[in-house]
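To fix ideas, we quote verbatim a fold written out as tokens:
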Amino acid sequence: MVVEKNTTYHFTYVSFDKGIVNIEPAKKDWDFIWTRSTYHRNNRDRVIPYVFSDFVMINHLGGVQVAEVLTSTVAYNDFKEANLSTLNFSNDRAARYKVANNHAFFT
């Protein structure tokens, strides 16, 4: 099977049973996903998986940027458009945030 790059998508996925499958939205059709992720930690002689639920990832390849706003700094209901100029937005791949009760995120 030949897997050709499809410039509509960031990645090309292949199933051994079905061939090429489109399982992600087109790269310009999404900003973030709310999902889960697994972190593997080495603990002496074994690997311990830790599952993060409520995990947010951004489409950094599509140029999406995100900023973290702590509700300890400004209440959610008090946040206004004028506050956007005070935020530091990032599209760094490492800009992945775990959602918590005291955070709000803007893309």
